[in-house]
């Protein structure tokens, strides 16, 4: 679809897109890019532990925070680590050891220095600034992130020169993930006003009955240019142990996400919901098609449906990450049918287009990962020009201005 863009911004930084096509005629539109990026292990350089204050509500930002292990007496003793349980934490104050903390430190295997950390933050911020920019001449209004260690790492991204002018807010809660990585949402405060932010815990138990800790699902509801939309940020359990053996974990995550959809739509049947994330499953996986019940036919979507925006790309062989010369499309968007407008009227915010962002600089130029997303580490080998082992994805919302 050919279109031209008016590059002047209003006082509210709202971009107006003028389409000149036989289908839409000469119309004026408001656009908003929504993006998601698995930025792969963005840890700060401190060795941290999780501190849980069970005397607070789980929705309190201070309920679960990262702290430097140097502030924890006797942290390095085996007795200390084995003393605490993560269950039944109400009313208790608990310290949680986290995997990978030693590795991502100046003295660890990754030799993770401030210089390397700052390079990663700079690289990632540049990518985010480009998502949807070709179409809208602006950075995304909404960005979901995963594999971030804490709020500080997210704020360091938003404070980079390419993003700082957009004045992003941050929605984030520390999860119980064993590695210490979380999901987060950043948003341009001039265009999106948060009315509700809440984490949903995914409880998974192994065959031995022990709890397996993974990331929460983050719900952020708010007004996007005055229109209520809910965003769900996901990072479902990995395929560790094999796709089939690990599938029940992702089915549990799908059950939780489906429950969030049902909860929101019980309050408002016409609610608009956009779920994004690294689902560690493809559009054809049972967790998506059966448990979540997503459909892949936008043209047949009803308001009550959950629509997978990426399935057509998957059928064409496209992907967002590669492993052993095989591509997967784990990074996806799922939206309510209320965001699909097959009539092309765009009388309120609707999905216009969805893309995988994979310019040449995000593709590894050589070595064993040649042609794959350009990661910053291959094992313990450092690539200063690298970004992440995933390509980001974005979708553009449009509505006509009358």
Structure description:
- Helices cover 19% and strands 33% of the residues.
- The protein is globular.
- The strands form six sheets. Strands 1, 2, 3, 7, 8, 9, 20 and 23 form an eight-stranded mixed sheet that branches. Strands 10-13-14-15-19-16 form a six-stranded mixed sheet, covered by helices on one side. Strands 5-4-6 form a three-stranded antiparallel sheet, with no helix packed on it.
- Mean pLDDT is 88; it is low at 1-25 and 79-84.
- It has two domains: 34-43 and 108-400, 4-Layer Sandwich (Deoxyribonuclease I, Chain A), CATH 3.60.10; 48-96, no CATH class.
- With 402 residues, it is of the alpha+beta class.
- The chain starts with a strand and ends with a strand.
- The protein has helices spanning 78-83, 114-130, 133-136, 151-158, 161-164, 243-267, 286-292, 311-315; strands spanning 3-6, 16-21, 25-42, 48-53, 64-68, 93-96, 142-148, 168-172, 182-188, 192-200, 204-205, 211-212, 217-224, 227-235, 273-278, 306-308, 321-323, 326-328, 331-336, 350-356, 377-378, 381-382, 393-400.
Average pLDDT metric: 88
Binned, the helix content reads 10-25%
Radius of gyration of CA atoms, rounded to a whole number: 21 Å
CATH class of the largest domain: Alpha Beta
How would you characterize the largest beta sheet? 8 strands, mixed
CATH superfamily membership of the largest domain: Endonuclease/exonuclease/phosphatase
- Spatial separation of the terminal alpha carbons: 21 Å
Looking at the structure, the CATH topology of the largest domain is Deoxyribonuclease I, Chain A
**Alpha-beta content class:** alpha+beta
What is the overall number of helices?
8
- At CATH level 2, the architecture of the largest domain is 4-Layer Sandwich
Beta strands, count: 23
The stretches of 5 or more residues where confidence is low (pLDDT under 50) are: 1-25, 79-84
Bin the strand percentage. Answer: 25-35%
Tertiary shape = globular
Question: Total domains, how many?
Answer: 2
């Amino acid at each position: 679809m050919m279109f031209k863009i008016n590059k002047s911004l209003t006082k509210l930084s709202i971009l107006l897109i003028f389409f000149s096509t036989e289908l839409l005629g000469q119309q004026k539109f408001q656009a908003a890019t929504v993006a998601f990026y698995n930025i792969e292990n963005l840890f700060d350089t401190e060795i941290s532990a999780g501190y849980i204050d069970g005397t607070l509500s789980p929705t309190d930002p201070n309920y679960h925070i990262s702290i430097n292990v140097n502030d924890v007496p006797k942290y390095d003793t085996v007795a200390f680590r084995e003393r605490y349980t993560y269950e039944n934490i109400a009313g208790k104050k608990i310290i949680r050891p986290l995997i990978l903390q030693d590795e991502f430190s100046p003295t660890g295997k990754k030799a993770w220095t401030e210089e390397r950390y700052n390079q990663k933050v700079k690289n990632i911020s540049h990518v985010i600034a480009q998502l949807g920019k070709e179409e809208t001449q602006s950075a995304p209004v909404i960005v979901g992130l995963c594999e971030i260690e804490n709020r500080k790492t997210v704020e360091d991204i938003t404070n980079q020169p390419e993003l700082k002018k957009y004045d992003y807010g941050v929605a984030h809660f520390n999860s119980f993930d064993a590695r210490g990585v979380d999901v987060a949402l950043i948003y341009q405060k001039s265009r999106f006003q948060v009315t509700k932010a809440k984490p949903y815990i995914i409880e998974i138990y192994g065959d031995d009955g022990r709890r397996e800790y993974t990331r929460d699902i983050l719900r952020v509801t708010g007004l996007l240019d005055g229109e209520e939309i809910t965003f769900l940020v996901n990072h479902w359990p990995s395929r560790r142990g094999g796709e089939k053996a690990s599938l029940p974990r992702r089915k549990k995550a799908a059950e939780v996400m489906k429950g969030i959809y049902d909860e929101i739509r019980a309050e408002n049947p016409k609610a608009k919901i956009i779920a994004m994330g690294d689902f560690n499953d493809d559009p054809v996986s049972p967790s998506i098609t059966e448990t979540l019940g997503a459909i892949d036919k936008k043209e047949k979507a009803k308001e009550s449906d959950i629509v997978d925006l990426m399935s057509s790309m998957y059928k064409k062989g496209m992907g967002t990450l590669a492993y052993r010369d095989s591509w997967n499309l784990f990074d996806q968007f799922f939206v309510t049918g209320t965001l699909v407008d097959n009539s092309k009227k765009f009388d309120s915010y609707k999905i216009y287009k969805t893309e995988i962002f994979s310019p040449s600089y995000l593709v590894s130029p050589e070595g064993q990962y040649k042609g794959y997303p350009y990661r910053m580490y291959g094992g313990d080998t450092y690539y200063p020009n690298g970004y992440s082992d995933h390509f980001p994805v974005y979708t553009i919302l449009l509505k006509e201005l009358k």
